[in-house]
Amino acid sequence: MKKYIIYVMTVVFALSAMFIACKKDKDDKGSNDVPVTGVILNGTSVTLAPTGTVTLIAAVQPDNATNKTVTWSSSDSSVATVNNGLVTAIAEGTAVITVTTDDGDINASCTLTVTQEEGVVINGVRWATCNVSLPGTFAAKPEDAGMFYQWNRKVGWSSTDPMINSNGGATWDGSYPPPPYPIEDTWEKANDPSPVGWHVPTKEELESLTDTDYVAREWTDMNGIYGYRFTDKATGVSLFLPAAGIRDSNDGWLYGVGLCGSYWGTPGATLIACDLFFGSNYFGMGYDYSAYGYSVRCVAE
User: Fold this and answer.
1) Which of 70, 94, 114 is the last residue of a domain?
2) Which of 32, 114, 203, 295 has the fewest CB atoms within 10 Å of its CB?
């Protein structure tokens, strides 16, 4: 009986020691937590056009804070929404985008102004947020294809227009440009399909999107439509160019929708003209036959 009592007491003492050790370890860990002291956003004011996007980045302070969890909110979701820092402009107006830390309930905010057709600035160039549709108009959404244009022509074809000799009608000028193939080295103002205050980009303006020192790009989708998103590294503002496809120079056949895209620029030369072309695994500047039907994404005057 005495041995049994000694055994029970030993077990009790051992369990007590383990409990005390665990509690001490837990208390020690709690005392090592680093509390949050602040949060900073990479921008305090941003202007976007409807459907434009910008990525806000929250820097929780100090860098070694234990709990860096944050939540995002918009003061007016009819003007702009926010999802994990990605802000999407919805309609004209003003909204305050706020980030709040889980630890300490500390917040920072950015005032977003949404204005119609102001465009977005990427690497110093102000781009329209949508492709050109009918001459003088923009497509409704950034992911919309808009219309396809032969170089230096103010005639657009939609993605649903038939090819030449299709459905009993010739809708595509496969002989463009006509012999002896004169073509100006700039897109003539009278032939520019861009809305007022905008123009077909120059080669240098297109090349500004390819400068990886200032612009990040990724192949992604917007509402199920694939293309490239270009993001200004300094501001987080983004531009989306859909892979609208290409109309063939001979008969206007549309191909590559969702797989590739080409966007006209200027200057041109005899039979060929400048363009930005891309697909999911390639991207670059080139010169192509001016009779192709390519997209137009214009820039501000």
Assistant:
1) 114
2) 32
